[in-house]
């Protein structure tokens, strides 16, 4: 019994201060890690950084700092940390290779959140897909199509492709190509088109709409009709203008050429068929 007590006393004398120092390092390190994480999150809140990105970066910083604290504690206790660092590095490399696509989507998600080429509610077209942005997450962006389907798009596809955002600007220009016949009076055509645009309250006066001769085509004289409207009115105005143009052209006797094929049938005298 006395020998056991002596052994314990020797261990306490040899390692007691190291254990105490290791505990102090762990407590202080954890406190500092929490403080730095809190400071980073507050700084990003002031910078109006997205909440998802704030949470992710704060957690990543805390985990990284705590890993350093644990290594410092082990080193204080006399444990050789070189092998641990090598193992962690090898494991990190293996994980990076295994989750290469996920890490690519992760970095792309951070770029989307930081640089904000799109935001929830925007109507975009990218990677061969168009729809309204529902949410931007770390790995995927969720889009809702016009026919109410939900599409999960990997962030790397969005970042790696051209993004067309139709909601950034308040106004959009409608580009219509209207073809009329060569026999129609051009002044009447331009006057009719101008009146149609002027009568529609959704067509903006500034920038002013334009009606201009675009091309002398093979079977039609093509006019470029370009009114400006609010982005929210784009599709309804476009559809209504096309309908109104057809009705007004019919009333004014203006023709709208369309492809035609003439079929000529030649009869043969049965007496000469042989």
Tell me about this structure.
- A hairpin with a 2-residue loop joins strand 1 and strand 2 (129-136).
- The mean pLDDT is 81.
- It is elongated and about 115 Å long.
- It has helices at 2-46, 51-76, 82-98, 100-115, 155-159, 186-199, 234-252, 270-273, and strands at residues 123-126, 129-136, 140-144, 150-154, 164-165, 171-173, 176-180, 210-216, 221-226, 228-230.
- The strands form 3 sheets. A 5-stranded antiparallel sheet has the order 4-3-2-1-5. A 3-stranded antiparallel sheet has the order 7-9-8, with helices on one face. A two-stranded antiparallel sheet has the order 6-10.
- By secondary structure, it is an alpha+beta fold.
Topology:
Elements: H1 2-46, H2 51-76, H3 82-98, H4 100-115, E1 123-126, E2 129-136, E3 140-144, E4 150-154, H5 155-159, E5 164-165, E6 171-173, E7 176-180, H6 186-199, E8 210-216, E9 221-226, E10 228-230, H7 234-252, H8 270-273
Antiparallel strand pairs: 1-2, 1-5, 2-3, 3-4, 6-10, 7-9, 8-9
Helix pairs in contact: 1-2, 6-7
Number of strands: 10
The whole-angstrom Rg is 36 Å
CATH class of the largest domain: Mainly Alpha
Q: What class do helices, strands and sheet pairing give?
A: alpha+beta
What CATH calls the topology of the largest domain is Helix Hairpins
Q: State which percent range the strand residues make up.
A: 15-25%
Strand order of the largest sheet: 4-3-2-1-5
| CA-CA gap between termini | 133 Å
Which regions contain 5 or more consecutive residues with pLDDT less than 50? none
Number of helices: 8
What would the average pLDDT be, to the nearest integer? 81
How do the helices and strands follow one another from N- to C-terminus? HHHHEEEEHEEEHEEEHH
Largest beta-sheet details:
5 strands, antiparallel
Share of helix among residues?
40-55%
Proper CATH architecture of the largest domain: Orthogonal Bundle
């Amino acid at each position: 019994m006395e020998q056991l007590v002596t052994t314990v006393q020797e261990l306490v004398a040899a390692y007691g201060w190291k254990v105490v120092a290791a505990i102090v390092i762990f407590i202080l390190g954890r406190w500092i890690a929490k403080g730095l994480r809190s400071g980073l999150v507050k700084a990003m809140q002031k910078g109006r950084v997205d909440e998802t990105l704030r949470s992710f970066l704060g957690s990543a910083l805390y985990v990284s700092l705590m890993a350093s604290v644990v290594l410092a504690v082990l080193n204080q206790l006399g444990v050789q940390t070189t092998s641990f660092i090598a193992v962690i590095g090898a494991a990190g490399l293996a994980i990076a290779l295994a989750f290469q696509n996920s890490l690519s989507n992760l970095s792309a998600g951070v770029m989307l959140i930081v640089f904000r080429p799109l935001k929830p509610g925007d109507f975009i077209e990218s990677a061969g897909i168009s729809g309204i942005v529902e949410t931007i997450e770390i790995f995927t962006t969720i889009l809702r199509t016009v026919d109410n389907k939900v599409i999960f798009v990997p962030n790397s596809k969005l970042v790696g492709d051209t993004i067309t955002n139709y909601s950034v600007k308040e106004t959009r220009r409608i580009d219509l190509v209207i073809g009329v016949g060569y026999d129609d009076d051009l002044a009447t055509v331009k006057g009719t088109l101008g009146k149609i645009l002027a009568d529609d309250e959704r067509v903006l006066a500034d920038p002013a709409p334009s009606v201009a001769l675009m091309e002398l085509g093979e079977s039609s004289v093509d006019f470029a009709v370009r009114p400006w409207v609010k982005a929210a009115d784009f599709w309804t105005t476009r559809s209504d203008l096309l309908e109104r143009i057809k009705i007004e052209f019919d009333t004014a006797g203006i023709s709208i050429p369309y492809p035609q094929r003439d079929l000529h049938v030649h009869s043969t005298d049965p007496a000469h068929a042989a």
